[in-house]
TrEMBL record:
One of its GO terms (molecular function) is metal ion binding. Residues 11-127 form the Mycothiol-dependent maleylpyruvate isomerase metal-binding domain. This is Maleylpyruvate isomerase family mycothiol-dependent enzyme. PANTHER family: CONSERVED PROTEIN. Pfam families: MDMPI_C (PF07398), MDMPI_N (PF11716). InterPro entries: DinB/YfiT-like, Maleyloyr_isom, MDMPI_C-term_domain, MDMPI_metal-binding, SCP2_sterol-bd_dom_sf. It comes from the Bacteria. Residues 141-232 form the MDMPI C-terminal domain. One of its GO terms (cellular component) is plasma membrane.
Amino acid sequence: MNPAAHVAALRRAGSRIAGGAEGRLDRIVPSCPAWQIADLVWHVGIVHMFWRMVARGALAGPEAWTEPDRPTNDDLLVWFRRGIDLTATILDSVDPDTPAWTWGRRNTVSFIARRVAQETSVHCWDAVKAIGGNEPIEQAVAVDGIDEFLDEVLPGLSHDLAGPVQTICLRAHDDTGEWTVRTGEGSCHLSRSCGQADATVTATASDLLLLLWGRRSPNQVSVDGNMAALQRFLTRADF
């Protein structure tokens, strides 16, 4: 996916969250047990605000960030929808190669467009699940999300890369996507093919991404090999 596709995906997922939240802000979010839908909407909106400020050069990083006051529930969805449009407009207008602060390997606005699209899409799944739906994450978005998770999120955010090595292969049976990730001994290495691994996980791209983000358990996907190695890997991906 390119930055324009990421912006389009964030618009779709953001709109889906807003539509599903109408009249349901007090619903519990099963995949985020401490949240009601109102909390999910607030969280996603704040993520959008932070990253769009970074993208347009108004914020140099988290040290300068001050979270605004939260709107009342009566005003929350109006605020959220405005934020979706503003975030998408800014990301569309800024050159993706513009340097920007990030916590990932790439320090450009293209990283931001991808991160915001992925954050919004996973939380869209949470919101849809909370209102009784059962929709997978869009296939292209999910494939891109697996790649982002293994290449950017895991090495950038995990506090648990030490200890023995596990090598895990992920295979999307509804796509050609394959990934082998080796974690342990303080590092994380990714190859975009399936090689020798302690465990191979096969599922739809959506379910693989949801597994990585803790929304699916290993018994909801096909696992060939050492289950303990997969579970140890997943603890490293538990942020």
